Amino acid sequence: MKVSDVEVRPLTKSKGDKNLYVRPPAIEKKITESLVLSVEQIGLDCGITDPEQQGYIPSEVIVYLLRGDKIPPDHRCRERLWKVLLERVLKQIGCVRDPESPLSAREDTVRTYVIDRLVNLLLEDQEKSSSRLDFFEVRFGAAIKALETDSERKYQREKERRAPLEIDIKSGEISVKAERSAGGFDPMDPNKLDDPNYRNRLDRAINQLEPMQKNIIHLWSLGYPVESNDPKVRSISKTLGKVEKTIRNQRDKAFNTLRELLREE
Amino acid sequence: MNQHPDHDQDIDVLLHFSMEPNPGKDTLNQYLDQYPHMAGDLIELSRKLLTEDDSASAPELQPQDHALLERAWQQYRTAITSKAGDPFVSLTIAQQRETASALNISRAVLAAIRDKIVLETSIPRAFLRRMANQIGCNFEELSGFLASPSESQSAHSYKATEKPRLQSQVTFEQLLIQTNTPVELREKLLKED
Questions:
Q1: How far does chain B reach from its first CA to its final CA, in angstroms?
Q2: How far is CA B52 from the centre of its chain?
Q3: How high is the pLDDT of residue B62?
Q4: Which CATH class is domain A167-264?
Q5: What is the DSSP string of A106-120?
Q6: Which of A43, A81, A231, B122 has CB 3.0 to 4.6 Å from B171, enough for a Cys bridge?
Q7: pTM, rounded to two decimals
Q8: Residues 71-90 of B with CB under 8 A from A
Q9: Interface with B, mutate which of A69, A145, A153 (most B CBs under 10 A)
Q10: What residues does each domain of chain A span?
Q11: B85-99: b (≥16 Cβ within 10 Å) or e
Q12: Predicted pLDDT of residue A159
């Protein structure tokens, strides 16, 4: 079969504006190229781990191939593609560790949920051609981040159900014990953020914060004010439904934690 | 995995947001206005999407990771191989409706045949031929599939001393009666030999 004879299955998922999602041209091209390869060649190519290397199969293309019928259900190549895809997922969500530093309960829950969810989406798709997997053919990594976020919420709800919060839910205030001074430290200092190495370390440190603190830090970095009297201006306080004092305290506490974490690295 | 419908909707919102070319402040504001109950998730996802992916520096998989992938693969493989050879598997809901209508039967009857609740030998051959033609497979393929044990039959067949037969299996005629198929139509369908 020649490239010109290949017909790539179109996506059917529509956006909010009713237009259909489309794959990036580079992905479309890779799919076309993969469809003229032999199944054996695809099996070999999926072992290439460097995205810059000739023959590398992007995750979006693997999803396309797993959804289609080019590769027989019980073929060894399908197993290879499947495992390569899930290995990339585990690496992306940072849930691969050496035996000396085992996964935390959160990481373990998140990775199990993300894998389960992806397996179920693929099975659901085999059963009734669901369009939800289309997202994964457009931007696989971003779609995995959506599943990861969803799983973190699930974990957090379960955790909150089991343990009392440091924050008084009724008043939205933090206990005195939790209040600490940030001592003027600003991890979002633009001068520091110019350094890619610092930015990576900061991202890793933010990942370790409590969910609400992560939210505050992100909104803060996007320029949202803590509080605003102008009803047209979206503030951190209004968005998260917490009083100003709580937001400031949690922000300072997060800054303190980040300072400690960045010092440790 | 059965999810609450609202939960499924929430995942869709997150998936749509993840496709946004610019998940920064302006887009985030639009989503926060539309889905205020998902503020925490949307903010966190915005942060993740704006964070650079460093999976290239992730360590190699450990035995417990491979075990997890193997379990997931076995779950997937079992499901897809059991569907292989199933001529109904690729039919969409609309196609199922169309097939039932073309065969002059209800969707409940079609579903019962697909789920092997009906004894294959009790279905008139001419009707089976029409059905095979309608769903785009050949007669032998359809007949072979319907005569093969269902998953639940296979699981229990080792105890059987005779040809496996589900207790709940019925004849084609019984099915037509149970699904309140009008007498005239019933007779017409049963005469298709």
A1: 43
A2: 37
A3: 83
A4: mainly alpha
A5: HHHHHHHHHHHHHHH
A6: B122
A7: 0.70
A8: 72-73, 75-77, 79-81, 83-84, 89-90
A9: A145
A10: 3-160, 167-264
A11: eebbebbeeeebeeb
A12: 75
